[in-house]
Amino acid sequence: MSSSSSASIAKLKVAGTWAGLLEVETENWTVPMLREEIAKRSSMGTESINLIFAGKVLKDCTSEEKSSLSQLGIKNNSKILACRVSVEEGKTLKNELLADDERNRRLARIRAAVTALSKRHADGALPIEDFDIELEDQNGKKVHFSETDRLAIMTGLMLHTSGKRFIRKQMFTDALEVLTMGEEAFSLCNPKSIELVDNIPILQIDMVWCYFMLRDIAWIAVAGLRLKKAREGLERAHGKDSSRFRLLQAGRTSELALYLRLELLEGVVAYHSGQLDKSRKFLASAQEKFFQLQVPDEALSLVMSMGFWEWDAKRALRMSNQDIQSAVNFLVVEREKREQKREDDIRRRNEIMEQKRYGVTPLKKAVDLQRLTEVVSIGFEKELAAEALRKNENDTQKALDDLTNPEANTALQRNIELRKRRRQQRATDATIERLVSMGFERSRVIGAVQAGGSLEQAMHQLLTHSRADTTVAAENSANAHGSTVNNNASAPDSPPTDLALDNLDPDALDIDCSNEGPSAAEIEQRDVEMEGEIADELARGDALSDYDIEVAKEGEAINEYLALLASADGTSSSQSSQ
To answer: What is the pTM of this model?
Structure first.
């Protein structure tokens, strides 16, 4: 015992505000404990001490607070430097470390939530939520990719959407982190599958915009490469001079603001690379687009007088080159699209709820409703047809074989009845747990629920009846069930009833209890809050969200760099005259 105890004692060499050897139990001591001990020996407050080990400041109030010194790599003869900081500096450092830790946790949550959402919605599995995430083109039509590419594209798009949210909040460092994750996700796609997709070039532009807003000149070389890739990608997706894109947009100039930002950033990179003529060319083109995008008050007022909101009217005019008739047509079409999307969302939500009733296939896929309709049209009962498809992994022919085979058909019916009973039992258990959580005694709750009725009826009985009454009700209920079972047992020649299923072994029926969708554990593991934020952000957008840029900041930046160019020209002329 004693040798084991002495082995855990380590001598640390401390220098700085206090110098000497300090004996600690590295397995049990944490950073706050070490800081407190050194601060006490230094006759200082803990907030006035910084501890440095292996070139790294040891943090308080983070995940390291719960880590032992040994877990941080501190062992016998390790050197610890104790530095003095002012109380205010100490508080500032502590707050910075807390903020950094919180930021890292949030970014990790975003990555985890996006990964979980993508996996659930990319592989045809039954969604846990009451919504579905689909890939659409600029006209709102669904597009199809292989399962691998679909997963990568969904992940990339969700991360891009989260990054743009940070950009709107002026949180450009966080935006860069998330956009980098998005870029990694897109890199997993087959290049041929996404060469005509413009999301990747737009992501590159957004990343360079973050560099610019952070005023980080160190990124200038990388920014130039990203903008080159972005321009090449947009030309592939939109056609030369955006010809293909404008054809799809009925001749509108919806892409103008995006290209303004691209040319501004190209001008900035050229300026800082010493290519002043090239910079001037890009900035002049960007400024021309900026003037084109300014919405006249008269046009805005006229469109708004037709019943449209200011934000919608401005957007439509910007994307229609200030043409009032074209803007109104655009708004009418967009309103129809929103209405259609609302109806589609309601229909899809109802479909998901229906699919959840049928359970999932052995490979965790939802029952294919289109194939279900086909089987039902032949004349089979819907729930039975759904069970046949579920069991046979949505293989229509195998499902029909089971439906037309008397023995297999009977097994399907038993599966359905057993699932209904399990669902009913889960509902009963949930009711019991809810009432128990309200403070009612479990035995009384079970009696009230077994007596029958809804949650409200059971609660009413618990509140209005005495303990004895509830117990009697439970006993009567049990006796009633017992007599029913005995009556069935005394009539061996009678046809089988639902109660016969009570004694069936699910394994004997080839039923997997996991076929009813995600388990409670899977649902509990979800980061519902973060997934909700991402889903809400996706729902806010539409096919043209990436092109909807206010350009006010871009206008200021254009003027700033044109002034810098003018100043450089003036300096050059002055030097030439001398």
So the answer is: 0.62
